[in-house]
Amino acid sequence: MSGRRGGRDRPGKDDAELWDAVTREVTPLRRRERQAIVAPQEKPDTDTPAPAKKKKVASALPAYRPVPPSPRVVGPGRIEPRLLRKMSKADGDIDAVIDLHGMRQDAAHMALDRFIKEGAARGFRLVMVITGKGRSSSEGMGILRQQVPKWLAAPSLAPLVVATAPAHRHRGGEGAIYVQLRRRERLVR
Q: In the chain, how many domains are there?
């Protein structure tokens, strides 16, 4: 095909003559009416018996009511590493200590609740809660050690607690928890 550069390609004189020669020898196909193609209908298999009608079991069962998910316990944050290093020293600034070791769960919960609330009211910033390592249980840790973080995240104490961290090895290690309390002026009353 011949044409101009950069423009549309147009057939040249030679192309037009060639096309005329080809189309003179071609005879168009006959137009036939098109037949619609219909999918064959499936006939039921007479050899297999029809399925038995289902019984209405749903009416016998109580209505399904999904149980709403329990609110996720979101605990306080982690204590900043700089503050943890400061507390790990023997003269770290711990304002108060409570020893729940050896208490029953209900008594320990009440004592912790009172201790945290009084500490926050007095303006304490950092307290230590001794839970003890506990006897070995199915989870591998003592009951108080499991429960104290949950109690600190509960609605009654969560507004008072900023962060928690396991105590340093020489301060009780796995058997104690540092608790950072919110500043008095930031407490929501």
A: 1
| 56: in domain | no
Kindly report, residue by residue over 112-159, the tens digit of the pLDDT.
999 999 999 998 888 889 888 776 555 666 788 888 889 998 888 888
136 inside domain: yes
Q: What is the DSSP string of the chain?
A: ----TTS-----HHHHHHHHHHHHH--PPPP-PPPPP-PPPPPPPSSSPPPPPPP--TTTSPPP-PPPPPPP----EEPPHHHHHHHHSTT----EEEE-TT--HHHHHHHHHHHHHHHHHHT--EEEEE-------TTSS-HHHHHHHHHHHSTTTTTTEEEEEEPPGGGTGGGEEEEEEPPGGG---
CATH number (domain holding residue 139)? 3.30.1370.110
Q: Note if the pTM is more than 0.90.
A: no
Residue pLDDT, tens place only, 24-54: 888 777 777 666 777 777 766 666 666 666 6
Q: Would you say residue 11 lies in a domain?
A: no
